[in-house]
User: Fold these one by one.
Assistant:
Number 1:
Amino acid sequence: MPIRVFHLIRDEDDSGVSGTGTVAEVFEASDGTVVVRWLSNMSSTNIYNNFKQVERIHGHGGKTRLVLVYDENPSKAEPVKVDPIEDEQSKSEPPA
């Protein structure tokens, strides 16, 4: 598996914590481990076992996307999409 780098772009920020636009740099190691470096004034670094964990935690119901910045092997690059997922708050709210 190649080493890849992404920007995590948030189109809407319901929490008001990370903001919008490019809010994190995401690095995928050759073994599938993913490191997320948050760029806000509350910067932190998180490590995940795989992209599925990142999607579940940071997808924000489709309000977040990953944009490929670098691929060690660009001829075999596959697009990565953060799937829309419901967070706990939206599950508890009645439909509009």
Number 2:
Amino acid sequence: MHSKTNEVSKKPVRPWRQSLLRLGCWGSRHCRLLWYRLRSSLSVHGVPELHQPLHAVGRGRVTFTGRVTLGSAPPLRWLNAKTYIEARGHRAYVCIGHNTHIDNGCAVVAEQASVLIGSNVRIGSGVQIFDTRHTLLRSQPGRPGALTVHCQPVVVEDDVVIGAHVRICGGVTIRRGARIASHSVVMGDVPEHTVFAGRPAQLVSHVRPRSWLPRPHARHALRPRWA
């Protein structure tokens, strides 16, 4: 006799629900891609691979050189995310290099200068890159301080990794192979093969570049004699 305690109640698997959910996600994603494509007013050169909508506005131009991926696989919590690129002035320019991946919810704004992102760059979710830098002048009694805005180009060189929710201000140059920790605010230049973190971001450690690693033909010399 089978006891009731040994019987395991299992809910019937309903694959049609999963199929409807996937169909709904696919339909909503493509509808949002088409909607933001119609709303975009910026001249775009190149065809990026879109996993999230691209909202490109402004009077400047943006260029994608090679294969650029915008957004990651769209889970349910990222259905409302998008990549926002704005080139406000006629001289504003945004360029993103080959094999660069930009995660969900990022914003790149070039007001009057330029934002140049190199190749093989990895940018986490929620990153904000601006070419502007605000300066608050010293106030006088009875007169509030004036706020001045300076537009300076931003350069992110090749093989750079930027963590999630990082803010990069105008006039910053991030050299090749640098690493920026999550939730950092970058206000100054970052040297090659370094790790920066904090608000404002400061030097934490160094990254060993790939050129220091042993070459393939020298691997046998590193093995023990009994190998």
Number 3:
Amino acid sequence: MSVDTQSNLFEDGRMAVSAPRSTPDSQALRDRLDRLLETLRNSQTMPLSDRDVRMWQTIVPNMTRWLPEDEANTIRSEFASEMERLGAGETLQSVE
């Protein structure tokens, strides 16, 4: 197969890779964080595995970086409060 034949595989877009988004969708972030907070609020015991607790403690601060500062601070505070209430403690990663 010649190089010309191989390049034809990509010309019609069948194999094209879409460009990654440079900025996450703020509403999608809010929706995901709202679902997480709602799950935590409605739980009497920790609904997450230890692994998931560690994951969310890293992800929440990173996800909130894409939101307005006041909103991000509120979400991080609520998350920390719920984690504390459910016995996971406040070990959130700092956002810089």
